[in-house]
Amino acid sequence: MKNFSIGLNIVLLIAVIVLYVLHFSGKTKNVEEQTGLSAVVPNAKIVYINMDSLLSNYEQSRELNEAFLKKVENNRTELNMKAKMFEQEVVAFQQKLDNNGFVTRERAEQAQADLMVKRQNLQKLDQELMETTQREQIELNQKLFTEITNFLKEYNKTKGYQLILSTTVGGNVFYAEDGFDITKDVVNQLNQQYRNK
User: Fold this and answer.
1) CA distance 139 to 161
2) Does domain 37-196 have CATH number 3.30.910.20?
3) Which of 102, 142, 174, 197 lies in the 20 to 30 Å Cα band around 24?
């Protein structure tokens, strides 16, 4: 009889533990499913944001990057067209030179000098486009950084975190336990703020 009582108490204890685990783990999953957010550890003071994920899911970032890439492609297309036109002029010059198409040697030298100036201008344009692209990329990154930083200052007024880290693939944070990633919540609120503008 005593063994039966001990066995029954053990079975009841296991059942209570299983119910406890199912109850609390089920609640977390339901919150995650309803909001689409991962649960953050209560009273966490240090959290992080995955910047790769934030920038790829933040609507304004995607729109700005798409516009930037389109502009870069247009500039590259324009430069390639000018380079092809220059190549055609070089081929035409060479054919004319090979066929003795120039009346005087001075005319041939002048045509060659003109081509050299065009080549230098083309190289200068390529350099300017590269510098402009780099400058615009830096400005775009700075704009996004400033906007996200300003948003996080307001966001943190209600959250009370002491430290919000940024991580990227290959960045400084190699491991963090579940419950410290606030990326989804930040992305959702940034997108909502952007849509409201």
Assistant:
1) 29
2) yes
3) 174
Q: What contacts 24+ positions apart, CB below 8 Å, involve 157-162?
A: 160/45, 161/44, 161/45, 161/46, 161/47, 162/45, 162/46
- Between CA 155 and CA 190 the distance in angstroms is 10
**Inter-axis angle of helices 183-196 and 59-98, nearest 10:** 80
Q: Please report which confidence band the pLDDT of residue 59 belongs to, taking 50, 70 and 90 as the band edges.
A: very high
Contacts of 32 (CB under 8 A, 6+ apart): 38, 39
Question: What's the N-to-C CA distance of the chain in angstroms?
Answer: 73
So where are the chain's domains?
Answer: 1-36, 37-196
Kindly report each contact of residues 86-94 with a partner whose C-beta sits within 8 Å and lies 24 or more positions away, as own/partner: 86/115, 86/118, 86/119, 86/122, 89/115, 89/118, 90/115
Give dist(CA 123, CA 63) in Å, integer: 31
